[in-house]
Amino acid sequence: MNTISFKTLGCRLNLYETDALASKFRARGFVTDGDFENSDAEIFVINTCTITNQSDKKSREYINRAIRKGSLVVVTGCMAEQYAKKYLPDNARVIVVDNKHKNMICEIVEAHLSGEFNGVENYKGDVFGFLPAKETFHTRSIVKIQDGCNNFCSYCIVPYVRGRAVSRPAEDILLNIKTELEYGFKEIVLTGVNISKYNYNGVGFEDLIKQILEIDNDFRLRIASIEPDDFSDSFVQLFKNPKLAPHIHLCLQSGSNDVLKRMHRHYTREEFLGIVDKFRAIIPDFNFTTDIIVGLPGETENDFAQTLEVASKIGFGHIHAFKYSRRSGTLADKMDNQIDEKIKNKRSKILRDLSEKLSSDYLQKMIGKRQILLTETVENDGFIYGYGENYVRIKMKMFDGVKTNEFYTVKIVGVEGDVLIGEKV
After folding, report:
1. All CATH 3.40.50.12160 domain ranges in the chain, comma separated
2. How far apart are CA 114 and CA 116, in angstroms?
């Protein structure tokens, strides 16, 4: 049996696709090795990211590390899509697979091993052509509902490497989720590039959520990264359903209206704050996490100060701080007033420090409240770990009969670093 090892960089969409691929390889008799760093696998699959310069660098490092092992290396994902010819060596043991054909990687590898591979273009790719994953690298099951984006934000390379927005048929999504629940998963995470724009044959995102919540099973539904569209009051009301987790990763990017305009974002800071208020009027401790970019061309100290002000006012549970990276072909790459790297580093450090403070403040507010803990891992410290519905990590002391992948109601009694301490109710 051949051994295959995976490395995934970037977003949950990549995680979903890697999980599906790994499950497919296992079903075909391959052995998956989860320890990429120390693996001596015959095949390595690197699912790359190109959202920033740092992502490119990390992707290249893992690719080169796998090549040095002398194994068959499959490079896929967004960096491979954009920069394959520029960065990847001409090597008979390196196969580059674009995002459209990613679902066919198992067939491509099998053909290569049997000496019958004659080019990726000869396979029929499908961005939604992934089977439900029976075994994954996670306790939660990630389900892809959409791909691509039509927004073309000035800084973003994603529409160029993922293509235009397309939505997966609702019946396929529902079947995928029901299958995952039959496999034993208890939390479903919806993912895509721009999932709020989901629309298939008149079924919009809100309609899809309603249909998923109607599935008769004990599970939790989580919405991953989403754009701050003008959510209807009826959509907000859906979060009263205990199946729908009170957490959204809502992408702010900047708290300055001038910067948002140059980013080609389709909202103002005031509209973003209004969305947050809608949700917290229903669930006061609703957890918002976010992405923020510092150092877009022309960003002033006042612009950055406005971002800090908005972030503090909202009280994000976590902030992913990104330094702006020039992406060839995007509008921002051609803008004047590019920001010096030292200034970007300084602003990024300030934002990360604020994120730590806001995260700590949010955790402290959770003390005394109840959470539904979905257990994931047992560690040597005598505790079992997992996440509550607000997407905060929780640890609970072990007891007789406790299991992983089970729901337990806990009362939060303390905080230890970035982990809540829960006692079983």
Report:
1. 3-122
2. 6
Name the residue with tokens 């079983």: 424
Residue 85 has pLDDT above 70, yes or no: no
pLDDT score recorded for residue 90: 65
Q: Is 38 helix (H, G, I), strand (E, B) or coil?
A: coil
**Residue 21 in contact with residue 6, Cβ under 8 Å?**
yes
List strands edge to edge, sheet with 141-144: 141-144, 187-191, 220-223
Fold held by 141-365: pyruvate-formate lyase- activating enzyme (3.80.30)
pTM of the full predicted structure?
0.92
Residue with tokens 């949950």: 12
The mean pLDDT value for 177-202 works out to 95
Range 370-424 classified under CATH 2.40.50: yes
Q: Which residue intervals of the chain bear CATH 2.40.50?
A: 370-424
* Range list of β-strands (E), 201-353: 203-204, 220-223, 225-226, 247-250, 287-294, 318-323
| The pair of three-digit structure tokens given for residue 294, joined into one six-digit string | 């510092």
- Give the pLDDT confidence of 352-396 residue by residue, as tens digits: 999 999 999 999 999 999 999 999 999 889 999 999 999 999 999
pLDDT tens digits, residue range 214-239?
A: 999 999 999 989 999 878 999 999 99
In the structure encoding, which two tokens stand for residue 244, read together? 């729908």
> In the predicted model, what is the mean pLDDT of the chain?
93
- Pairing status of strand 43-48 against strand 72-77: parallel
**Cα 93 to the center of its chain, rounded Å:** 30
* Residues 157, 330 contacting (CB under 8 angstroms): yes
Superfamily of domain 3-122: Methylthiotransferase, N-terminal domain (3.40.50.12160)
